[in-house]
Amino acid sequence: MKGEGQVEWDISKVKWSICLLLVLHISLGYSFFLYWEGFFTTTAQCDDTSPLSDADTTDFLNNPPFKKLVWVIIDALRYDFLLGERSKMIHTHQLLSQGKGYAYKAHAHAPTVTFPRIKAMVSGSIPAFTDFITNFMANEHSEDSIIKKLYEQGKDMVFYGDDTWLKLFPDLFVRSEGTTSFFVSDYTEVDDNVTRNLDIELDKDWDVMILHYLGLDHIGHSYGPDSPLMNNKMTEMDGIIQKIYDRIEHDESTLLVVCGDHGMNQVGNHGGSTVEESTTGMVFLSPSFHSSEYVVRDINQIDIVPTLSNLLGISIPLKNLGVIIPELFQSIINEEYYMNSLNYNAHQLNVLLERYGKHELPSYIPLVESFQQTNTLLKQYRAGDIHLKREIINHYNNFTKHLYDKLSVDIFGYNEEQLYMSIILFGILCLTVTYLLYFLSYETYSYVTFSLEIMAGYFIGSIIGGLCIYVTYAILMDMDFSMLFLGFPFSIIFGICISLLTVVAVFWKIFHGYINTPSVDGYFCYMGIIAHVISLGSSSFIEEEHQIIYFLSQTWLVILFLKALVQMNSKQYSFALIAIVTSRIIQSWNQTGDKYLGADDISKYLIKEENYYLLVTLSCVTLVGIVSFHTISSYLYDSNDKIFKTFKSLFNFVLYYTFALICMRNSNVNNIISLKMVEYLALWGILVLLFITVLNFKLSNEETSHTRYNLNSILVIFGLFSLLLHRFNNYFLFSLFSLQIFSLYQYFSIGSRKISWSMMIGFFWLGNSAYFSLLNSNSLSTIDISNAYVGMDSYHPVLVPAFTYIILYTGPILYFLAFIVLIVHFTPSRFIADQNITSFLFVTFTIRSCFSFACSLVLFIERYHLFVWSVFSPRFCYEILHESFEIVKVLIAVIVMSLK
Amino acid sequence: MEGIYNTPLEDPEWTEIYIEWMIGLVLASNVGFCWLVQNRHHNRKLHVAEILVITILGFTVGTLLFQFIAICFGAPLLTNVSRTLHFGALLSAFSFLSPCLFMGFDTNQWIRVYANHSPKNKLERFLYYTGYGSVIGAWLGAIPIPLDSDRPYQVWPVSCVYGATGGYILGVFIWFISLGGFRKDHKD
What we know:
The structure holds two protein chains of two kinds. By secondary structure, chain A is mainly alpha-helical. In chain A, 62% of the residues lie in helices and 6% in strands. In chain B, a hairpin with a 2-residue loop joins β1 (40-41) and β2 (44-45).
């Protein structure tokens, strides 16, 4: 059974293994589902049926200080664009230094994307993590919000800007015009459309005007925050603020609010919770303000909700968690109004606390008591005890701030039983699959068995560790929750002991000659996988996962190089050297991750204006390279089969046509419609190419050379397609990928040409480095959608997500296809090729299941960690995506196997 | 607590000075040992000039080689050139120079000792353990660099220099232990 002789395999065995693999995938998917349910969707339930508080707290609202509101939202207005030293918004600064307004650094909650931010700024609630996913599926906002309250009060509202608002509030605006945030590369027209309407509206009659400018965000996405365009945009926005303020200058009852919905990071993306992404600028301007000094204070973004409600005299939305901003009240209104507002805010928060059913928790009792005491003080004050006012204000301030601090954390709960269940399921699955691989191992993988024993041992250790945590938790259930962490040392020691025992057992077996000694790269591969799995426990290693992958893949290549060097095989080691150098260039193409994000890289160097010719030359090398690769391969695989020949020339014809279209698309065609048309045609070209190849597979003779030619064609088609989906400055990366794959192909073609476990892991790592080098990372903000609309005029519910997915996984798909081609080229018979592909899928699934298990365990352990929403949860979401990609791989493999 | 981590060695400039001293020490002891004791290649006595040529050549080639490897592993190419050079020089002194001096540029011997893991005598075992120790140590030393705690030791190449030195010392230590176990072959 173990490595001795070949286990007999036949076609049905391959089929059964694929079925088994799918079953395993489904059970992994089920564990993900369980975990997702238990972790992400279990926010505390809020009973929102009962009416709010008694009337006497809201009476004061009948006489509000402001009657009209102009709310300008500038998308991605990071704090320093509005208020920092680099800001070009001179007029705004003048107004602020004249004391006509107040400036704030508003901290947005994650996820920092537009849709949840708008929701938060109108309802005051903190969106759940899953709102990131629903960002693209904006639908009508049914919850309580200030917009709704304003509407109920009969205010005439007008809106111009991002049409997300119109999707959220379809019928509440008197006049409106939406601009779509669809063409990310358009940054003038989206804003001109809003400003055009502004000029008309300023002369008309309205109570509330909301403007949402998108251009700044678009510049950020396309050119980054340091682009000179950004300064122009800031000046433009400043002019708009000035224009509005000039109009309201003599109208003391109008309030002008300027704010950003989120910030942007050093490359211009957003979505995560770094300081750059979550700190936005917010300014309140009005002629009635008399600020004594120009200071910037820190607030939460949702604080705008109760503040606006009280300033405009509407009731605070039900689910609001924000607290009112004191300065705005202190400067214009009498303290009585301020105190009433605070009282109202405190009441509302207290009601919210009761609705969440948390007011009886021991940790809240002191807060609730202090609130009741303050209410008594207020009664005394109303009875005539005037000097209590300051004290009451202080008390309410403290109460609201503390309640926010606690409740904003506590409303996100977890279904822990379900989490335990799914983690144990992950663990069992992981164990099953490792042992399955162990028993299914065949001749070519004499040392697969060996490495898997260690891996299995490690994971038995971990699972027992996990159970230890569970038992400790169960025992300490009634005690303080932090005691749970006592279980850790035990579980870790246990895990290590078991792993060590397994290692000892394996070495004993080697010593007694049961198992062949694995090669150095084989050793390295499983050690690397284990190290990588362990590294998931650290938040910074998750953020910098690409560094680990780069390091591992590079070391793997160096080991290959050294092996060739020792054998004095000059051809082999020079190819390994090419792969190493290529890999290094690939790694420095796009700087990703968190720590060095925005540092210099080749891609940034190329998009500078003075290097334009270099960029074009390099990209042309790629374009021409793909076509010439195909031309060469069609010369190499000549055949007498008529059908094959016909399809080949047909393929060439369509290929050149598509190639010409892609070239046209990348030349400077400025007219948007014709560009979309070109893309559309190119997409069709690619589809036709795929169709021809499939027909060629099916109809021509089943000769090995035909299969190889057709597989090469699939690589070419995928190459062309990815050129359509990726940015121009990444084009040359594809040449580098091809060069690396080619040199590895040459490297492995010398010698036994057996597919080893180390090759599988090596290609898996290289695919992952390609993934990271295309500017992906473990932050959700780096998913690139700018080209997902290729060939489309509007959002398409199937194609846009599908294209985004392909953009995300271009690197891994490329390396996976390349590895399949390599397997088919290297194995003498179709049957052995199928066997190898299946085992490759098993190996990657094993790795994936280990990662899923580790990810879920880490996310569970760290669920009260500061970075749970910014680091661990996104990593888990990526793990789900990776697992889905694993299923896609199985499907691709099945298609390829059935075609051959 | 902060102070514990901030020894002067963690300042990159200090690291360079430290590396220079370390190289001087290793170079001096190697050359001295070669000149005074083990100056034979294939039973031919080496001339002083030969030793010097080997030292200079081996050291330079090794430095460039390890600098190249470091760059392949992600060390910056255009910035911090001096630091990468120093790091290369350190590894060269630790693991490349001594085999050059004591085994010459004989590829077969190198392969026998390093690739086939069969050093024959005390000296070769020393080269074997320290060579592997310092290279693997330097490799492992790169692990803390991406962590986000921003400690001074995470600056390239401080942690790798620590790793290399630690690995070298560990190698010497293991060699020292192995002396007891392999007495039989100490005649050749």
